[in-house]
Amino acid sequence: SQTALRLLFKMPSSCSKVGDPRPGQPYKGGDFYAFLPDNKEGRKTAMLLKKAFEHGLTFQIKSCNGEERVTWGLIPHKTSWHGGKASNGYPDAHYLREVCTVL
């Protein structure tokens, strides 16, 4: 069985900035995990995801039940190593190609 790369994004709670949906409002952060296969293609995708994160493209702030919180943005991430596409996990034969197209 294939091994996984597990990416951790630690998003601290803070206040939103100009350009966010509600500037100056506090929002709740959290720890977000993403998984990639530990192979050449997976490592290449991890580097592209890192660049997207550094450019502020990975997460967005959304209002959820009256609370502002950090959520995944438009770049698809696999948040589980198991469960298939329906559980946002693997197996999903097309994921790496799809995410690289988005990136």
UniProtKB/TrEMBL annotation:
Catalytic activity annotated for this protein? S-ubiquitinyl-[E2 ubiquitin-conjugating enzyme]-L-cysteine + [acceptor protein]-L-lysine = [E2 ubiquitin-conjugating enzyme]-L-cysteine + N(6)-ubiquitinyl-[acceptor protein]-L-lysine
Domain of life, per UniProt, equals Eukaryota
Tell me, what is an example of a GO biological process annotation in this record? protein ubiquitination
- Main localization, broad class: cytoplasm
What are the UniProt keywords, alphabetically? Cytoplasm, Ligase, Metal-binding, Transferase, Zinc, Zinc-finger
Molecular function GO terms recorded: ligase activity; ubiquitin protein ligase activity; zinc ion binding
Query: Main EC class of this protein?
Result: transferase
> Which Gene3D superfamilies does the record cross-reference, listed alphabetically?
3.30.390.130
Q: Where in the cell is it found?
A: Cytoplasm
Q: Which GO terms describe its cellular component?
A: cytoplasm
UniProt record similarity statement: Belongs to the Deltex family.
PANTHER family the UniProt entry points to = DELTEX-RELATED
Q: What is this protein called?
A: E3 ubiquitin-protein ligase
